């Protein structure tokens, strides 16, 4: 018993004061890319040629589709002119699929609070049913981690529940395999209205590394209307948490330095 | 009668022409006798032939001599199965039947493992409906069936579990997977391409480093690329960090399933500390972007090495603190002891790998038996227990945490000089290579066959979960159904790594 208490004392309080304070991320963390296509020599397609998911377009100004992006180092390493560099910006979630397309003059439109009529019902206590439909366990692990003492998701009124009947929404990971299509649809149908759908990770948004395989559906929005897109491969836990908090209005864009309530 | 087979090493390419093509009865006899003498069936898979038939390739691993051998046979519609003589072949032969529509005759348990469309078919290939198969059923008074999944209660991958129970007692558990099938193997044919390494990194997301090392060592072997010792050391550091994070998380999860919350809560947090160390090296908590053919993409300079060592020491002290609580709690040990026990004989017959095998006293560890990379120079003592139950699986993990911790410290303190990446040339045409890596779940096998142009004609991936799911099913026999979560955590197998 003494040991138990001593250990408790030694382990200390480890919950991070997010969103009141900004998190400390690894120095080499790859967040939102910074694009400077004024540096691009004409005709150069070095980044396009190496991008594994064809997320980069140079038809017109250089853009990166963060819904496809794996945040891998390939494009920034291949670019001879530093036109693409990763920043450590971790807030990345958007409400619309098109808002994930990033350009030099096209900043991310970060997610806003869910519609007032739905927020009135769900916003103070959001219960989510998670379904992995071909996810590699990366996204799943970094969602699970939100339940640890470091993030303590419960303090925001957000909870992952076992039964879809108890859920306000569906959080989907994975490219949606053909073999999970029916189970995913059944889970969705079992959630009472109004319900929201959240797609986490490149797979759930666009198919990720498995895009266009005949065994996958290229993401959740081929089945449902998606209310929140959280990009990454996998997204950092803070990227996921930030997205969820934006959706329930606990973090708002444009109020000071992304001031939290 | 058995045939002498040419032997080769882990990651050593051999010409396809040197693989003995035997008549089926000799193929069977050679495998059966090699397994009897202590070899392991590392791989058994089909590959297409020009005339529409299928070539079966078997790879045997003899830990006594650290050598591999390969043999092949040609089949069309059916052949006499191996499973009845060597249960290790069970899952492999079910896979062959599913992928190639070749029937292993006499197989006692022939049904789909992934519910995927066959690679070889007449007419349009149709995938069977997932989860619809002839499940084994027990009949009798008061026998009941419990079906769980594919969608489970937590944030976890999908799979279907069907228990045959008498009261609380589980007579039999059947595990039916395939829900995560993304078609990775067929996408790799013709590669490597620009997406290949990313498909390997996400084969099983918690084993990104293990699978990318197995893959890159296969490519480097086929290209004859000499990766620097520095890059090998950095890969090994990443591999052992991956082991630390997962073992730490597993110990916490096992404590949690036994209702012991302090260890569960602390280990959940400390697991993240290990993941964050990997992120300090390569920017990703799961090691994405770290390992590439020819070496690694991220270096560790002297300052970072010091910083990593300091944080590693703190995390190791924290995990020791958290896990010691668990070993000091008799009620927890009572819960772990004799739950889900497997014998060494069962383990050997089924061909289990990793901590699940070492917990049965079976000394089996690729880092020792078939070392590649820096493990040829720096050995990690093999971690063994013998009771084969949940307690032993927890104990082996705890030993491995300590030993991997020591190993990483040593490597960080004496990183060899050299480039972190070298160029890789074209791959040898018409060769076979087998690459083995000891991931945190156990032996990862990648077997690649190149075509005439030096591209992948076949790329076979065997995640340790592919071998160990049957171990979980057998461990559940004669247990209480309430033991399932704990047994399941003690194996903690990958669904997507199995389903590919």
Describe the structure.
- The complex is a heterodimer of chains A (261) and B (500).
- Chain A is of the alpha/beta class and 261 residues long.
- Chain A is built from eight helices and ten strands.
- Chain A is 23% helix and 14% strand.
- The radius of gyration of chain A is 19 Å and the shape is globular.
- The mean pLDDT of chain A is 92.
- In chain B, a hairpin with a 2-residue loop joins strand 10 and strand 11 (169-176).
- The longest helix of chain B is centred in the middle third of the chain and has 29 residues, at 229-257.
- Chain B is globular, with a radius of gyration of 22 Å.
- The model of chain B has no long low-confidence stretch (mean pLDDT 95).
- At the A-B interface, helix 1, strand 6, helix 5 and helix 6 of A face helix 3, helix 4, helix 7, helix 8 and helix 16 of B.
Layout of secondary structure:
The complex is a heterodimer of chains A (261) and B (500).
Chain A: H1 2-11, E1 33-35, H2 46-50, E2 56-57, E3 63-65, H3 74-78, E4 84-86, E5 101-103, H4 116-122, E6 126-132, H5 138-144, E7 158-160, E8 169-173, H6 181-190, E9 196-200, H7 201-206, E10 228-230, H8 237-247
Parallel strand pairs in A: 6-7, 6-8, 8-9, 9-10
Antiparallel strand pairs in A: 1-4, 2-3, 3-5
Chain B: E1 7-8, E2 14-15, E3 20-21, H1 24-36, E4 40-48, E5 54-62, E6 67-75, E7 78-80, H2 90-100, E8 103-105, E9 143-148, E10 160-166, E11 169-176, H3 184-188, H4 196-201, H5 208-223, H6 229-257, H7 261-282, E12 291-292, E13 295-296, H8 302-327, H9 330-336, H10 344-350, H11 354-358, H12 366-369, H13 390-413, E14 431-439, E15 442-450, E16 456-462, H14 464-475, H15 484-491, H16 495-499
Parallel strand pairs in B: 3-6, 7-8
Antiparallel strand pairs in B: 1-6, 2-14, 4-5, 5-6, 9-10, 10-11, 12-13, 14-15, 15-16
Helix pairs in contact in B: 6-7, 6-13, 6-15, 7-8, 8-13
């Amino acid at each position: 018993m003494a040991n138990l208490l001593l250990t408790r004392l030694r382990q200390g309080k480890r919950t991070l004061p997010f969103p009141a304070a900004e998190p400390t991320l690894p120095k080499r963390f790859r967040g939102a890319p910074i694009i400077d296509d004024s540096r691009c020599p004409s005709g150069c397609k070095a980044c396009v040629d190496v991008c594994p998911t064809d997320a980069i377009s140079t038809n017109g100004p250089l853009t990166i589709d963060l819904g496809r992006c794996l945040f891998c180092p390939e494009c920034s390493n291949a670019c001879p002119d530093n036109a693409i560099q990763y920043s450590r910006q971790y807030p990345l979630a958007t409400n619309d699929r098109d808002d994930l397309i990033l350009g030099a003059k096209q900043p991310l439109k970060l997610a806003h609070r869910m519609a007032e009529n739905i927020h009135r019902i769900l916003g103070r206590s959001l219960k989510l049913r998670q379904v992995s439909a071909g996810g590699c366990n990366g996204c799943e692990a970094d969602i699970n981690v939100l339940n640890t003492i470091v993030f303590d998701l419960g303090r925001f009124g957000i909870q992952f529940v076992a039964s879809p009947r108890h859920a306000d929404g569906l959080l989907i990971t994975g490219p949606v395999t053909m073999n999970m299509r029916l189970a995913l649809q059944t889970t969705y149908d079992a959630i009472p209205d109004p319900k929201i759908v959240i797609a986490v990770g490149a797979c759930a948004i666009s198919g990720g590394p498995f895009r266009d395989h005949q065994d996958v559906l290229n993401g959740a929005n081929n089945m449902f209307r998606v209310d929140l897109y959280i990009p990454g491969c996998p997204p950092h836990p803070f990227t996921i948490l930030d997205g969820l908090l934006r959706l329930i209005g606990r973090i708002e864009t444009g109020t000071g330095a992304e001031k939290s309530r | 009668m058995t045939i002498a087979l040419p032997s080769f090493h882990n990651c050593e390419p051999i010409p396809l022409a040197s693989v003995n093509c035997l008549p089926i009865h000799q193929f069977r006899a050679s495998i059966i006798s090699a397994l009897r003498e202590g070899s392991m069936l590392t791989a058994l898979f089909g590959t297409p032939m020009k005339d529409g038939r299928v070539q079966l390739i078997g790879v045997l691993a003899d830990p006594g001599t650290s050598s591999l051998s390969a043999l092949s046979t040609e089949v069309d519609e059916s052949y006499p199965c191996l499973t009845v003589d060597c249960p290790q072949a069970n899952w492999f032969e079910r896979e062959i039947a599913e992928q190639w529509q070749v029937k292993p005759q006499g197989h006692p348990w022939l049904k789909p493992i992934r519910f995927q469309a066959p690679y070889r078919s007449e007419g349009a290939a149709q995938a069977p409906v997932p989860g619809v198969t002839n499940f084994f059923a027990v009949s009798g008074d008061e026998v009941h069936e419990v079906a769980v999944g594919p969608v489970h209660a937590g944030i976890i991958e999908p799979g279907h579990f069907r228990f045959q129970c008498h009261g609380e007692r589980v007579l039999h558990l059947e595990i039916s997977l395939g829900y995560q099938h993304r078609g990775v193997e067929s996408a790799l044919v013709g590669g490597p391409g620009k997406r290949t390494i990313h498909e390997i990194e996400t084969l099983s997301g918690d084993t990104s480093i293990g699978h990318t090392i197995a893959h890159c060592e296969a490519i480097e072997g086929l290209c004859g690329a000499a990766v620097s010792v520095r890059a090998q050391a950095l890969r090994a550091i990443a591999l052992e960090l991956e082991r630390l994070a997962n073992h730490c998380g597993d110990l916490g999860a096992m404590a949690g399933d036994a209702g012991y919350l302090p260890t569960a809560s602390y280990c959940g947090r400390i697991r993240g500390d290990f993941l964050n160390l990997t992120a300090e090296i390569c920017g990703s908590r799961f090691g994405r972007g770290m390992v590439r053919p020819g070496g690694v993409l991220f270096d560790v300079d002297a300052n970072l090495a010091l910083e990593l060592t300091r944080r590693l020491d703190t995390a190791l002290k924290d995990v020791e603190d958290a896990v010691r609580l668990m070993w000091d709690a008799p009620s927890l040990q009572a819960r772990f002891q004799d739950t889900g026990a497997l014998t060494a004989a069962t383990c050997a017959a089924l061909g289990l790998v990793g901590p699940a095998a070492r917990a049965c006293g079976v000394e089996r560890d690729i880092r020792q038996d078939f070392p590649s990379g820096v493990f040829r120079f720096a050995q990690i003592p093999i971690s063994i227990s013998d009771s084969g139950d949940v307690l032993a699986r927890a104990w082996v993990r705890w030993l491995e945490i300590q030993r991997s911790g020591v190993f990483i410290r040593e490597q960080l303190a004496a990183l060899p000089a050299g480039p972190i990446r070298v160029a890789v040339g074209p791959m040898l045409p018409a060769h076979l290579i087998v690459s083995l890596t000891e991931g945190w779940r156990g032996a990862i096998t990648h077997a690649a066959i190149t075509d005439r142009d030096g591209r992948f004609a076949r790329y076979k991936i065997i995640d340790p979960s592919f071998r160990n799911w049957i171990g979980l099913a057998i461990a559940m026999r004669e247990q209480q159904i309430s033991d399932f979560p704990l047994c399941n955590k003690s194996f903690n197998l990958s669904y997507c790594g199995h389903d590919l």
